């Protein structure tokens, strides 16, 4: 809590804009790196309860 009240922080990292392999050229490692860098640029600490890998595989 900040200032004694509830706080909400939102960060829109948007789509990557590339297709993942095999339909595109984006690898899992590249996608992870891009998303990670966007989160770090937002200067927000994110505790991920779930791995990105199942999400990215599902979206592939």
What does this structure look like?
By secondary structure, the protein is mainly alpha-helical. It has a domain of 32 residues. 37% of the residues lie in helices and 0% in strands. It contains two helices and no strands.
Summarize the structure.
This protein is mainly alpha-helical and 60 residues long.
- Major beta sheet, specifics? none
Number of helices: 2
Radius of gyration: 14 Å
Helix content: 25-40%
What shape does the CA trace take? elongated
Structural class: mainly alpha
Number of strands: 0
N-C termini distance: 37 Å
- The topology string of helices and strands comes to HH
Task: Let me know the average pLDDT.
Answer: 71
Low-confidence stretches: none
In terms of DSSP E residues, the strand content is under 5%
Secondary structure elements and pairings:
Layout: H1 28-41, H2 52-59
Features:
60 residues; mainly alpha; 2 helices
